[in-house]
Amino acid sequence: MDPDPTTPPDDVLRAGVIGVGWAGRQHIAAYDAMPGVELAVIAGLEEAERTELAARHGVERDVARWEDLLETEGLDVVSIAVPTFLHARIALAAFERGLHVLCEKPIARTVEEATEMVAAARAAERVLDVAFNHRRRGDIQALKAVIDAGRLGDPYYAKAWWLRRSGIPTLGSWFTRADLAGGGPLLDIGVHVLDYSLFLLGHPAITAVTAATYDLLGTSGFGSDPDSGKTGATDAATFDVEDLATVFMRLRGGGTLSVEASWAAHRTDQDEFGITLYGTEGGAELIVRDMEPSGSLRIFTDDAGVPAETRLTAPPGRGHRAVVESFVETVRSGDHDDADGAGAAELARVVDACYRSATEQREIRLDP
Ligand SMILES: NC(=O)c1ccc[n+]([C@@H]2O[C@H](COP(=O)([O-])OP(=O)(O)OC[C@H]3O[C@@H](n4cnc5c(N)ncnc54)[C@H](O)[C@@H]3O)[C@@H](O)[C@H]2O)c1
Questions:
Q1: What is the pTM of this model?
Q2: How far is the CA of 20 from the centre of ligand 1 (A)?
């Protein structure tokens, strides 16, 4: 007899998603689309959004608080897509219940919280993965293939950025409070830039950082994104994080990487991120404006003394779908040795050093 299609097979993974903001919605859609996964429960404080999402994705249970979600019977995996101050608290509670965790970036507010999360994942022998969806973009993957094929020779300098003119994710929301977010654009969007840059460069160790941060526009009320609609926004407009960060990093082997991240700056009114790389055999430039699915990707080489330029048309990537699928694959594989969040915790260590460098106005060495 054919199995009843309405009865989930035994190896179906039961998933929960905490948070129904932009990030939570990406996880909800990704689990819902995955065969072999049942999205069993979602949590979020906004009742109307939560119940609408539950109905749309056929989720049997929806609750307001994360504590109630973790009590759900038979849960295997949970995604954490809530304000950053809650990441460590929820992850530790999830590991205590034996769940595998996919956490939104940044892993946590501080390197101390990140280190605690990694230790808890190891002790519980559970997966801790962090959602770095930008490196899954088609244009970043295409550039990686070009670098791995040796077209640039040895890349020795890269400059990468994510810059916005008025992209503060709502003045007065949790994003602009250091105690809730842990930092401004360097930790929010700069961490994506750092992640894709190091991915492209083959993960060289960062040996030293010199950073400067500024808060001149945010503190004067300039630069809030009117469309971001983040939770908990108040008229008080607290702003005690940076609105612009610039960092110079030394890499093991002699290379260098420069990173810029802004939520607010007097520049063209486009959201723009990208990277320029110079190598011994060629250079590359990727620019993505206003979150277009595939950015402008050019490779520069020398063709028998003549400057050559190749334009690549990369397909769009699958973003959070790819992130969630790879997390589920790791959970199912049973091979959890390298899935403890240590890579994301290392980025937290680098960001922490950048903030220290900015405060102390000096280079911070990161040698192990
Ligand atoms: N990977 C990406 O590209 C990306 C993009 C945006 C945000 N993020 C990250 O995702 C996280 C959430 O960001 P967002 O933009 O979706 O924020 P948001 O403010 O829009 O949404 C936060 C959600 O968390 C919920 N929440 C807050 N407290 C809760 C509690 N006690 N119990 C249950 N739910 C609770 C809120 O109700 C809301 O649904 C952040 O860490 C952010 O850095 C990642």
A1: 0.95
A2: 7
